[in-house]
Specification:
Strand content: 25-35%
Strand order of the largest sheet: 34-35-36-37-46-43-42-39-40
Pfam families: Alpha-mann_mid, Ams1-like_1st, Glyco_hydro38C2, Glyco_hydro_38C, Glyco_hydro_38N
Family: Belongs to the glycosyl hydrolase 38 family.
Number of helices: 18
CATH class of the domain at 25-182: Mainly Beta
EC number: 3.2.1.24
Catalytic activity: Hydrolysis of terminal, non-reducing alpha-D-mannose residues in alpha-D-mannosides
Domain Glycoside hydrolase family 38 central: 519-598
Distance between the termini: 91 Å
Shape: elongated
């Protein structure tokens, strides 16, 4: 037989694209359209309905950036269309085919009932089936003119990312708004041809099935009447039935399809637009559920549900009905799909607590799995946190984006730092926006790593990132692919069902231990430094407010614990941990608002803490220590006078001077407190840091070396830092001044000032305090660089085989060598409050109050010694998607801690991030709780969420070893129970001599619920 493949493939493509697809709508009549441009921000439906509309002509430009235009559309179904399937079809002037970041609209009835959204891949609204001739159609359409930030493939900066800079030129040209007949036979033929053609093209050239499909399509096209596509469509479909009816092979891979609409809570649009996106997408989804009984939609992010509940009650009611019908599956159990690395441990716990409670309260459903398809790597504490929140499985897709190494598994057990394992799956389709194309189906099978051990995978289907969700076309593809020879089999089902089947099929799946590091998007540990700083400080202020509110509730008559305020503030912080806000990868508008929100949160939390402390009564000035560790350090009084005080963990003490072990001396550029001696060079670097206790020099080379690197990644500017950034740099060694600014027995400080680049300045104050080996470097940067990254290096004379970086509820060790490609790819990593380097007998920690990104490297010197260097990433200057990212002022502190154990690093990390608070208080209550036993660290103290008055304490083992001890209370104890994160009892805790006995494995998290006598 002659090879006719090329002729057939080209014929089928042309007939499909130019004749079949264009005949899907058999006839159209235009709407009469009027328009009203809403001034400023979006308005409620009632205001828009009462507005004055003006005639609007198709082909007219509309929509300034971030504007809202309301269109009134009126029409009538022609009498001769009676009995046909009639739809409204609207093209707002869509650009490309991505629904997420462009014109999109929500269509309402005139009574305000939302019907459905329209976007480039979902342009229809059902009118009637069957239609009545002469019936009227009357809609109010809320159209958003969001700018296309992705235009030109992120190749250049744009001012469109903030309404303050976007201008007012119309972005779109309205193409058409019609009432139309959907020719169902042609529409189904369109899908038949698509599915068969795409399958054919994915099969091998020597696969008989490929040629069978080709000739079936060729014969079917012979039956297509080009002058009457509608009249011949049924015959063409009948000819294709045999090719579509052949069952899949018995060993075919099974893909569990789950409807999905990834909606970034903010990204290339602000939070206010996400609130509207949820209504549009969820309207589409509930409409699709009405049309397809076998449709199931998985949706995470409790915050988005709450937005719909509060702003679109009719859509919310439809969601509730879909949940009852089993077609809508709440998943994920988190308040938002947060970043996987940057939120603190307690914040990750609260993501699950608030998220799971929302779903239980509103739907009576406890979610079983973690749904995080798009976060940029996942910390190694997740398995334990997830399991303690009642989760059984974990799903993500993002690791498929790795730049260097292909992750070796798609289904596996993920083991965290404490030994907890959770069943985990990465969809081999390599997208969370699947549409069941032939290429996707083929890729999923080809890519699947578990062949021979397992035979099923999951595919989230539906348009996403900016929402949109599944479409009827995707559902039709799924039906055709349910059992089709040459393809994987598709079954639409709840993700819980998939995980139950996958775990049963593959119980001995391989194990991956430690973090799920994404070999991409490493700059998200640093970009938008003020956003990250706002998060860090909010987390610590929340801890402080809860501790002292609990103290006041226990000891101050008449004080009322601020449950509602704390709940609201926690949810604000959790929202801004979304995986495009906290990582710094959103437009300028998002980060401008985030900074304002963090400032508001700080004000409220400072006020709550002040109220709690004041409730203890006016009296003597006291010092309050929110840290879980005893502290002896220098604090300043209201007039700035330094005082050396000793304060117990989670307690308070009078502001009374205590003699420090040794005073601080300042001799030229040398600071000495008897514990460390610090020499500052003329160029402002640390030329020497000598640990006087150990009798050794800490630095192998000048420390606090500021290095400015050129930083232009290959593609995702705000997201990525690529390895070549290291090759071009400037060391900032031209200090304009090095000046002693404080010379007191308790504090010695030297200020270093620098100017560089495009008018940027850095002022650093290097401080040594009495009684502490910690060397603080308070930093004030006025930053005006572009496409640069600034790092601060500490090359220490330590041969460290690995670095230890704090993560949630513990720390992770990473090799300092690059023996393999996996280690080499970790050239930029994340950590929280500290990084620790050690050789047997000696260690050093670098501590910070707001940075996350860092790198660790090692070299061997000519003298045979090893230099291990920690470099903190301080600030970046990407231009996309925010052209002004990180520009302006930054204030933060980092510190060098010589002679530090891991426990020292933990304690000083808390101290730096939780400054002592000086306030007047008459009472001197005992700390709410006191942990006794090395490694037992209290992370949170609060009242139980059920308002019972019980005290909830969350603690963990922080050194990485076993810990035994007790937890003593500052109040009469009647009972204690171990609970899960949601404060539900698991078992009774042992009480001995009025204290709770505590025994922890390495990095174990323990939540205790304490009942007061």
């Amino acid at each position: 037989m002659h090879d006719e493949s090329r002729r057939i493939e080209e014929r089928v493509q042309r007939l499909h694209d130019q004749r079949i697809k264009t005949a899907v709508y058999a006839a159209t009549v235009p709407f009469e359209v009027e328009a009203w441009q809403a001034p400023g921000e979006p308005v409620p439906f009632q205001e828009a309905a009462a507005a004055s509309y003006e005639p609007f002509t198709m082909g007219t430009p509309w929509g300034p950036p971030w504007g809202t235009t309301w269109f009134r559309m009126r029409g009538r179904v022609p009498e001769e269309w009676a009995g046909r399937r009639v739809e409204a079809v609207i093209d707002l002037g869509f650009v490309g085919d991505w629904p997420g970041n462009q014109a999109e609209a929500l269509v309402h009835l005139t009574d305000g009932t939302p019907l459905k959204a329209v976007n480039p891949l979902n342009q229809y609204v059902a009118v009637a089936n069957p239609a009545r001739g002469g019936e009227t159609v009357d809609y109010l359409v809320e159209a958003a003119s969001n700018p296309d930030i992705l235009a030109d493939d992120f190749s250049r900066p744009t001012p469109l990312g903030d309404k303050l800079t976007a201008g007012d030129k119309p972005l779109y040209t309205f193409r058409s708004a019609d009432i139309a007949i959907l020719d169902e036979e042609v529409w189904h033929l369109d899908l038949d041809v698509q599915v068969l053609r795409e399958l054919m093209l994915e099969l091998g050239e020597h696969d008989p099935r490929r040629h069978e499909i080709a000739h079936a399509l060729d014969r079917a096209m012979d039956l297509l009447d080009l002058d009457d596509v509608s009249g011949s469509a049924a015959a063409v479909r009948e000819a294709l039935k045999p090719a579509l009816s052949k069952p899949a092979h018995a060993s075919a891979h099974t893909i569990s399809g789950v409807g999905h609409a990834h909606i970034d809570s903010a990204w290339l649009w602000p939070i206010r637009e996400t609130k509207r996106k949820t209504s549009r997408t969820f309207s589409n989804v509930t409409s699709l559920a009405d049309e397809y009984d076998d449709f199931i939609f998985a949706c995470s992010q409790a915050q988005q549900y709450e937005w719909v509940r509060d702003n679109y009650p009719k859509v919310w009611a439809r969601i509730q009905e879909s949940v009852k019908n089993g077609q809508w599956a709440p998943v994920g159990g988190m308040w938002v799909e947060s970043d996987g690395n940057l939120p603190g441990g307690e914040a990750v716990a609260r993501q699950f607590i608030h998220g799971k409670r929302f779903f239980m309260d509103h739907f009576g459903i406890e979610t079983k799995g973690v749904w995080l398809p798009d976060s940029f790597g996942y910390n190694a504490a997740y398995p334990q946190i997830a399991k303690l929140a009642g989760n059984e499985w974990f799903l993500t897709q993002k690791i498929s984006w790795n730049q260097t190494n292909k992750f070796p598994h798609h289904t596996f057990w993920w083991e965290g730092i404490d030994g907890t394992r959770i069943f985990t799956h990465f969809p081999p389709v390599d997208t969370y926006n699947a549409r069941f194309s032939g290429a996707e189906m083929s890729r999923a099978v080809r890519n699947y790593q578990e062949k021979g051990g397992a035979s099923r995978s999951l595919a989230p289907f539906g348009w996403g990132d900016g929402g949109g969700g599944p479409t009827r076309e995707i559902m039709e593809r799924a039906r055709r692919l349910a059992d089709l020879e040459g393809s994987a089999k598709v079954v639409v089902e709840h993700p819980d069902e998939f995980f139950d089947k996958a775990r049963e099929e593959y119980p001995d799946a391989p194990v991956w231990v430690g973090e799920l590091y994404l070999e991409l998007h490493r700059a998200t540990y640093t970009s938008q430094a003020r956003t990250k700083q706002g998060n860090r400080r909010s987390e610590h202020l929340l801890r402080e407010a809860e501790l002292w509110a609990t103290t006041a509730a226990l000891h101050a008559p008449g004080y009322t614990y601020p449950y509602e305020k704390l709940d609201r503030l926690w949810k604000t912080v959790l929202l801004h941990q979304f995986h495009d806000i906290l990582p710094g990868s959103s437009i300028a508008w998002v980060h401008r608002e985030a900074e304002a929100e963090y400032a508001r949160v700080a004000r409220e939390l400072h006020a709550l803490t002040a109220e709690a402390v004041a409730a203890l009564g006016a009296g003597d000035t006291r010092v309050f220590n929110t840290s879980p560790y005893d502290r002896a350090e220098v604090v300043r009084t209201a007039d700035g006078t330094p005082v050396y005080v000793e304060v117990p963990a989670s307690g308070s003490a009078p502001l009374a001077a205590t003699a420090p072990p040794r005073p601080v001396t300042v001799d030229g550029r040398v600071l000495d407190n008897g514990l460390v001696r610090v020499e500052v060079a003329e160029d402002g670097t640390l030329s020497s840091v000598r640990d006087l206790r150990a009798g050794r020099e800490v630095l192998a080379e000048p420390g606090n070396l500021l290095r400015l690197h050129t930083d232009l990644p290959n593609y995702w500017d705000a997201w990525d830092i690529d390895k070549h950034y290291k090759n071009r740099y400037t060391d900032l060694l031209d200090a304009s001044s090095v000046t002693v600014v404080e010379q007191d027995p308790l504090i010695g400080a030297i200020r270093v000032e620098r100017s560089f680049g495009k008018g940027s300045t850095i002022t650093q104050t290097i401080t040594v305090r009495a009684g502490s080996p910690r060397i603080d470097i308070e930093t004030d940067i006025d930053w005006h660089e572009t496409e640069k990254i600034l790092k601060a290096a500490f090359p220490v004379d330590i041969r460290a085989p690995h670095s230890s970086a704090e993560i949630q509820f513990g720390h992770i060790q990473r090799p300092t060598h690059t023996n393999t490609s996996w280690e080499s790819a970790r050239f930029e990593v994340s950590g929280h409050r500290w990084v620790h380097l050690a050789e047997p007998g000696y260690g050093v920690a670098v501590i910070n109050d707001s940075t996350y990104g860092h790198d660790v490297s090692r070299t061997v010197r000519e003298d045979g010694g090893t230099t291990t260097t920690v470099r903190l990433s301080l600030v970046r200057a990407p231009r996309i998607p925010d052209p002004e990212a990180d520009q302006g002022r930054h204030r933060f502190t980092y510190a060098l801690l010589p002679g530090a154990s891991v426990e020292d690093a933990v304690a000083e990390g808390y101290s730096l991030n939780l400054p002592l608070r000086v306030a007047d208080a008459a009472g001197a209550p005992e700390p709410v709780v006191t942990a006794e036993g090395q490694g037992i660290t209290v992370e949170a103290v609060k009242l139980a969420d059920d308002a019972s008055g019980d005290v909830v304490v969350r603690l963990y083992e922080s050194r990485g070893g076993r810990a035994t001890g007790t937890l003593r209370t500052g109040f009469p104890l009647a009972g204690a129970r171990i609970t899960d994160l949601l404060e539900r009892p698991l078992e009774d805790a042992e009480i001995t001599d009025g204290a709770v006995a505590v025994a922890l494995r390495p990095f174990q998290i323990l939540t205790l619920r304490l009942r007061r006598a």
